[in-house]
Design goal:
By secondary structure, this protein is an alpha/beta fold. The chain is built from eight helices and six strands. It has a six-stranded mixed beta sheet, with helices on both faces. β1, α4 and β2 form a beta-alpha-beta unit. It is globular, with a radius of gyration of 18 Å.
């Protein structure tokens, strides 16, 4: 971010979309919300990954205007600060963050799932093998959570945002030699996440969930410390 500011100061013609804080990021997903309604009618649950907050919160905010009882499930990864973990190095990229973007509205979120890199990678291969969907690991993490929810809420219409394709990951996630070098690989995908009562950081092989209850970060047990640190 410091380098970005230096570039902007040096070149007055530089454009930065400011995806973390620009409300147009969220507004742009109105078309996606409309498409969901046109395709499936009532939406009971929306699952999506959290990074900048734009895709999940933008889509969720509009859908909830139409369906007030909509369940919104956010997918994050360990050592991302978005839902209260202390920051750290993350093997799973494309979701999570080391800053708190203004586009992430915690008050929209009913559940949070933290998916480690290893189950996300395994779910990505499962998508390709079982459904011929060549997607990236962020999509794998989202699909893992959405499939779990759909199995346990058979009568609910569950939709999921799959944000990345597999082409960028041909030398990593789709490279068996690269995977074999990872500690803990191969990994079996759990049937369900472990449910937590408070924010507890996990590892790359874990999948945990917590009922968020549409609260701001400061209202969640052990989340206030992270929020105060990041917001100064």
């Amino acid at each position: 971010m410091e380098r970005l500011q230096a570039v902007r100061e040096k070149d007055a013609g530089t454009f930065w979309p400011a995806q973390y804080d620009n409300p147009d990021n969220c507004y742009a997903y109105g078309r996606l919300a409309e498409w969901f309604v046109r395709q499936v009618g009532q939406v009971d649950c929306l699952v999506g990954c959290a990074g900048s907050g734009g895709s999940l919160c933008g889509t969720a905010a509009i859908l909830r205007e139409v369906f007030p009882e909509l369940v919104v499930i956010a997918v994050d990864t360990p050592r991302s600060v978005l839902f209260g973990h202390p920051p750290g190095q993350r093997l799973l990229r494309g979701l999570g963050n080391s800053i708190l973007p203004r586009n992430l509205d915690h008050r929209l979120i009913d559940e949070i799932h933290w998916v480690g890199a290893l189950p996300a990678f395994a779910a990505t291969h499962q998508l390709c093998r079982d459904h011929a969907l060549f997607m990236g690991p962020t999509s794998g993490a989202a699909a893992l959570v959405a499939q779990w929810y759909a199995r346990h809420r058979a009568g609910a219409m569950t939709v999921v945002i799959l944000p990345d394709e597999g082409f960028r990951y041909q030398e990593t996630v789709f490279n068996h030699n690269w995977l074999a070098a990872l500690n803990g690989w191969p990994v079996a995908i759990a049937d369900a996440p472990a449910t937590l009562e408070k924010i507890v950081p996990g590892g790359e092989g874990t999948w945990t969930r917590m009922i968020w209850g549409r609260r701001v970060l400061e209202e969640v047990p052990s989340g206030g410390e992270t929020a105060r640190r990041l917001r100064g």
